[in-house]
Structures are given as C-alpha cells and as structure tokens.
Amino acid sequence: MTGSGVNGMISMEGGRVEESIGELRRTFRSGKTRSAAWRKAQLKALLQLIRDNEDKIFEALKHDLGKNPVESYRDELGVVEKSVKYSLSHVDEWMAPKKSSMPLIFFPARGQVLPEPLGLVLIFSSWNFPISLALDPVIGAISAGNSVVLKPSEQAPACSSFLANTIPLYLDSKAIKVIEGGAEISQQLLQQKWDKIFFTGSPSVARIVMSAAVKHLTPVTVELGGKCPTIFDYLSSPSDTEVAVKRVVGGKWGPCNGQACIGVDYVLVEEKFAFHLIEMLKKTIKKFYGENPKQLKDISRIVNKHHFQRLRNLLEEPLVAASIVHGGLIDEEKLFIEPTILLDPPLDAEIMTEEIFGPLLPIITLKNIEESIEFINSRPKPLALYAFTKDEAFKRRILSETSSGSVTFNDIMIQVLYSMPFFSVNYLQRNPKNKNKNKNSFNCMIAFAVSLRHIALWRCGTERVWEVSWEILI
C-alpha cells in the first residue's frame, strides 16, 4: 500500500498508525461502541457488505487461492452471513446483566454479572480462509462493543485489498479500521498497547505475537493448527464404506485443497485393509476431480510459491517420494499439487512430524486398529480427531484415552457448528464461528468481553453501598 487510505484503510507510509489507534481509543472511551444500537447497526452494515459484494469476494478468492464460487460461499460468505445473523439475534441477550447467586449469610444482597467490552482489539487473520477468518472475529468484537483493528494476511493480497477498500464504505471508520502490510507492519502494530489480540496463523508467528503481548500484559487468543488424525476402522466402519471414504476425501481436499487447520492430516488403518482403502480413495478422487485434476477449476491452488516449495520439499525426501501410491503431479507455474496419497512414509520424516497443510495424505498402517490410540498419544495433541467406526467400545476408548480439541465419529468437520465449541487442548483457541446456546459458551463475544464486573447491592436500612470486584476470565 502506498499513500493514504480512505477512511478506515490506513497506509503505514503516512505514519498514521499511532494517530489512528488514538482515534479508536477515543471512540471507545466515548461509549459509542457500547450501545446495542451501534452494535446492531454495524452488524447489519457488515451483512449488507457481504450481499452487495458477493461477486467481488468470489473474484478475490479465485485470485488468491483458486477457490470456486461454491467452495467460497460454503467456507467463506455463508459462514460470515450466518455468524452475523446469529449475533444480531443474540446481542441483547449477551449484553443483558446475569443474576449471580449470593450466599445466604449476605441476604438480602443481590448479585449481577455485567458483560463489559475490553476496549481496543487487534485481529490478525489468516490466508487460507481470508474472508471468514477475518470477518468472523470482527463480528465477535463488534457484538461485544469493542473498537477494532483488522490486519488481514498479506499472503492473500486480493482479499486483503478488498477488505481494506470495502469495510470503510460500510462500517464506522472511527471505531473499525483495516491495516494492510507485511511483517514490518505487524511488528509496528505489536509495539502498541492493546486490550486484546486475536491471532489466527502459525505457531512460529504466534510466539512472536505472544512475546510482544507479554510486554503490555495483553490477553491473547490464538488459533493454530496441528496434525489431525483420522482413524479408519475398516472392519467396523459404517455399513456404507463408500460414504465414509467420500467424507475422508471431502474433508481432506474439499476445504482449500487441504490448507485447513482442522482438515484430515493423515489416516490410521489396519495394514490388512490398507490396500482396499487406498483403492477406494483413488476411485473417489477420480470421481470427484477427474483423471486430470490439474484441468479442473473446482479445486483450490496452493496460496503462494513459498508454501508450494514447502510442500514440494516434503514430497522430495527420497523415502517419502518412494511412498507415493497416487498422485504426486506438481505444476509450479499454476501453484498446483495433485491430490496425493502416500503409504507408510517414514514417521520421522517432516511430512509426519509437521502439519502438512496441503493436498498430501499419508496412510499409516497398524497391526491392530486399537494401536491408533497409542500412536496418537505419542504425538502432540491434535486440534481435531476423526474416527470412522461402529464399535461403541472403541469409541469410548478414543474419548477416554485420547486428548484433542474435538472428536468426530463417522464424519469430517461437522464439529464446526454453531451449537458446538471450537477449542484446542494445546493452545488457547478462539470460537468465532461456533456459539453455544448455553449462557457460558458465547465464546465469540466472551473472547472480547472477558472482564465481568460483579456488583453486590447491600441494603443497610435506607443506605446503599456498592461493592465492585473484578474477575478476568480467559
């Protein structure tokens, strides 16, 4: 970006970062963002932004990631639209004071819990879902009554530019701003004092964010990735094994061609069934993507040359390359890597020690499917764990003997629902898309409204004394 932006779009070369942040703080301190009317007006404007600019969003997603309109609506626009509608219908409920019980000894005192916005929040979004992972946290921040700075990922430049140019036309630019830029800009932002930082991205960058936040004791929520295993109990899988295989293929290559934090990273199966599973996977891939997926417009591309080269390096390790049983075609010019299946690559190879985040699927064979529990437990706790089995005893063992952010049986990714929380057991995780209906699980809002003021009203004759205490809920 060069020159000065319009309204809420800021150019770093103009030296306006601190000035703009000061404006956002003044807006918050004025109380403007706290009202239900302001919150609802911004949410409605954001919904209008999505509806007015659907074609532009599709175009930006196609440019950055090669996403087709169906995938773009399913994983991006549709997610944001549902999130806005859900928030609009719950803002009043989220803002309302909640009764808090008091010990009988303090009768007739009354207790209340009042949700309170944190103030000025900084949101770093990721490139793999550059619209939904940017706007979903913004929806949460607005719903909770905060001022917001959104820093979109520079690795999805068309989507970043769209957000920077369009958001100021719809939302309150004195309370919500978009700042574009690379690592240098991110460092400038991290030097500022924030009331909350919300980060989606890689563990390496998350460490930088959290190190900077410590200097100001700023609370941070991060969404990171990990290696998400799928246990395929072939002998006891659902009666329609074909459906199960379709779900594995859809869960691996459907969302951004494997570039998703909760996508399938590898599959565990008994060695005697591995051949049958691989043949069914090949058949389903061809059915979904044709004999030459490279020519298909309905499969996403790798985001950039850096990540393309990273994935190529994974495949070019000699022992890994020797384990390829399907696919392996790459096209650097088009940033395309064919859906690729590998059988028993070395467990100490990088493809099995680091998150793949791409269209490569290792199949790991075991003597007995129950060994999968020990296999998973010997590695870092996954963000998501999937298991295809009808064995109820095995299901109970998976639930009781493994630890992961979520466990899903006989399907892939359906845990990303409004009625289910979305967490990790390794890192503090956000919950912008999934809002439990019970009062303690509005993570989208609570992530930004974590300071709750407890007010106890004591009655002493005609005299009233207000006692205020604070709780910080992370």
TrEMBL record:
InterPro entries: Ald_DH/histidinol_DH (IPR016161), Ald_DH_C (IPR016163), Ald_DH_N (IPR016162), Aldehyde_DH_dom (IPR015590), Aldehyde_DH_NAD(P) (IPR012394)
Keyword entries, A-Z: NAD, Oxidoreductase
Pfam families, sorted: Aldedh
Domain Aldehyde dehydrogenase: start-end pairs: 17-422
Reaction(s) this enzyme catalyzes, per UniProt: an aldehyde + NAD(+) + H2O = a carboxylate + NADH + 2 H(+)
GO cellular component: cytoplasm
Active site: 223, 261
GO molecular-function term, one example from the UniProt record: aldehyde dehydrogenase (NAD+) activity
Keyword GTP-binding in annotation: no
A Gene Ontology BP annotation from the UniProt entry: response to water deprivation
Gene3D superfamilies with a match to the protein in the record: Aldehyde Dehydrogenase, Chain A, domain 1, Aldehyde Dehydrogenase, Chain A, domain 2
Domain of life of the native organism: Eukaryota
Family: Belongs to the aldehyde dehydrogenase family.
Protein name, as recorded: Aldehyde dehydrogenase
Source species: Vitis rotundifolia (Muscadine grape)
Lineage: Eukaryota, Viridiplantae, Streptophyta, Embryophyta, Tracheophyta
